[in-house]
Design goal:
- The structure is a single chain.
- The protein is built from 17 helices and 8 strands.
- By secondary structure, it is of the alpha/beta class.
- Strands 1-8-7-6-5-4-2-3 form an 8-stranded mixed sheet, sandwiched between helices.
- Helix 1 links the parallel strand 2 and strand 3.
- The two termini are 39 Å apart.
């Protein structure tokens, strides 16, 4: 069973006298910075001058500085820029400002696990990863609650890295809901697999395949859109709130019977075999190397694929139909 930590297991006093740098004031950066600040933690924000995020940080009461300045003045450096730029930020602005007793933090383990960032042995390295978008992390904190988080220690130079990580998690509200102990390896590999096989890659291809099947059989594209995409949220909301079987109890018996008797025809053993292959590519670092090379080359394949995907008929149909739904 997973080890889960709550408020009673974390002490905010561990952060007393320590300054935390939030590098990257994006969706997660803003939420974590504001929550830490409201928890009484000394926070310094780094963001690129002239960007919308920089202006937002100023509106929120921060005085944004460069990454180098933030790393120099902080005891704990939380890097919350996008994965593909973290290594560059680390090498140019963080690495030279690391001293003994400092710590580097992350909310995703990609760059540490795949060794794009190789911190010196003298610093702590930990991860606190909220399992929800930044807006929710902030909203739940303001309501007195929190979003569940993952916590992991990659390097424990001080001997107290876990205590620091749990204090950080408490500062953003995570221990109110529960913080599950994991590793950088487990978090990174399962996160990438979930995105590729189910949440993004799997779902979008399944939706488009269903749409294409109905349209090619002569059904109206608008009707196909409603049946394979629009109603998806209803089902995922039910699954998230009640679980798979809870969803089955809340849809029609016809839908439930179709689910349990036909689902395995779509997600067959062949599909599961492909999933296992995808997981091995993640575990071996093949996907990471491919993604790093793609960014280094200026994203030619990525941009080409995205452009082609935007031209799929479901996008135009969906754009028109969503115009009929102001509640969205």
């Amino acid at each position: 069973m997973a080890k889960i930590y709550y408020d009673k297991d974390a002490d905010l006093n561990v952060l007393k006298g320590r300054k935390i740098a939030i590098i990257g004031y994006g969706i997660q950066g803003r939420a974590q910075a504001l929550n830490l600040k409201d928890s009484g933690v000394d926070v310094i924000v780094s963001e690129l001058a002239g960007t919308p995020n920089y202006e937002q940080a100023k509106k929120d009461g921060f005085n944004p500085v460069s990454a180098s300045e933030a790393a120099l003045g902080a005891d704990i450096i939380q890097i919350l820029t996008q994965d593909h730029v973290q290594a560059k930020v680390y090498k140019e602005s963080v690495k030279s400002n690391l001293k003994k007793d400092k710590a580097i933090a992350f909310s995703h383990g990609f760059n540490i696990h795949f060794k794009q960032i190789k911190p010196p042995k003298k610093v702590d390295v930990f991860m606190v990863a909220p399992k929800g978008p930044g807006a929710l992390v902030r909203a739940m904190y303001e309501k007195g609650g929190g979003v569940p988080c993952l916590v992991a220690v990659y390097q424990n130079a001080s001997g107290g890295a876990l205590k620091v990580a749990l204090a950080y998690a408490k500062g953003i509200g995570g221990t109110r809901a529960g913080v599950i102990e994991t590793t950088f390896k487990e978090e990174t590999e399962t996160d990438l697999f979930g995105e590729q096989a189910v949440l993004c890659g799997g779902v979008t291809e399944l939706v488009k395949a269903g749409f294409d099947t109905l349209v090619s059989a002569g059904y109206q594209p608008e009707i196909a859109y409603f049946e394979v995409l629009h109603e998806l949220k209803l089902i995922t909301d039910l699954i998230q709130k009640f679980g798979i079987n809870g969803m089955r109890c809340r849809v029609s018996n016809t839908a439930c019977y179709g689910d349990v008797t036909r689902g395995k025809k779509i997600i067959s053993e062949k599909t599961r075999k492909v999933m296992r292959k995808m997981l091995k590519e993640i575990q071996s670092g093949k996907f990471a190397r491919e993604w790093i090379r793609e960014n280094e080359a200026g994203r030619p394949n990525f941009n080409s694929i995205l452009k082609k995907e935007c031209e799929h008929p479901i996008e135009k149909v969906g754009e028109n139909l969503r115009g009929m739904m102001p509640w969205l």
